[in-house]
Amino acid sequence: MTTVTFVLASRSPRRVQLLREQGYVFDCLPVDLPEVPGPGEAPLAYARRLALDKARAAQARSGRPALGADTDVSIDGRILGKPRDAEDACAMLLALADRSHQVISAVALVDGSREAVIATTTEVEFVSLDRAQALAYWASGEPADKAGAYAIQGLGGRYVRALRGSYSGVVGLPLAETAELLAQFGIHPGPAASV
């Protein structure tokens, strides 16, 4: 039997899958925190703060090392959260169309008084798309719970022309950086799970 080494402060199936594929053994302990940027809070600062707040909350509840993460889409310094409805998703997708935006993924690890945060910024360039395409994509159901109203690992991948940075960071967890962070705390994966 393999020993659980940390808790993941997330209910994201994508983060769970990414970590399990790498061989990490952990429990999920989602925390519900308000995900609202503070006045004038920059996208990078916002992502780092949320990841750390999630990790702190999960560590306080579990007494075990806790990993928190936050992934945000931003364009022109504006944070695009999860869409409220079809119109909101359409507006986001059209704002991203035929230009570049940033996806920031922050990961925090908390173990007692020891805390560390890392973050990646990935430049993503979209193809052109129109309102009908955006609404059809919304109808698929995929964008409903995704920051920026798209999932690069799903149907939304068809809109990505180019990417400079961490693909897994856009999915929700930058793997190389997360592995380095966990290793700093003495947490290492077992054999990678079969997929």
From TrEMBL:
GO terms (molecular function) for this protein are: dTTP diphosphatase activity; UTP diphosphatase activity
Provide the reaction this enzyme catalyses. dTTP + H2O = dTMP + diphosphate + H(+); UTP + H2O = UMP + diphosphate + H(+)
Which interval of the chain is the signal sequence?
none
The entry's localization annotation reads:
Cytoplasm
Q: Which InterPro entries is this protein grouped with?
A: ITPase-like_fam, Maf-like
Which cofactors must be present for this protein to function? a divalent metal cation
TM helices/strands, residue ranges: none
Q: Which SUPFAM superfamilies match?
A: ITPase-like
Its Gene Ontology cellular component terms are:
cytoplasm
A Pfam family that the UniProt record links to this protein: Maf
User: Out of the domains of life, which is the source?
Assistant: Bacteria
Q: What class of enzyme is it?
A: hydrolase
Principal localization reads cytoplasm
Which residue positions are annotated as catalytic? 70 (proton acceptor)
- One GO BP: nucleotide metabolic process
The EC code for this enzyme is: 3.6.1.9
Enumerate the residues marked as the site Important for substrate specificity. Answer: 14, 71, 153
Keyword annotations of the record: Cytoplasm, Hydrolase, Nucleotide metabolism
Function (record text): Nucleoside triphosphate pyrophosphatase that hydrolyzes dTTP and UTP. May have a dual role in cell division arrest and in preventing the incorporation of modified nucleotides into cellular nucleic acids.
Similarity annotation: Belongs to the Maf family. YhdE subfamily.
Q: Which HAMAP family match?
A: Maf
Q: Know the name of this protein?
A: dTTP/UTP pyrophosphatase
**Taxonomic lineage per UniProt?**
Bacteria, Pseudomonadati, Pseudomonadota, Gammaproteobacteria, Nevskiales
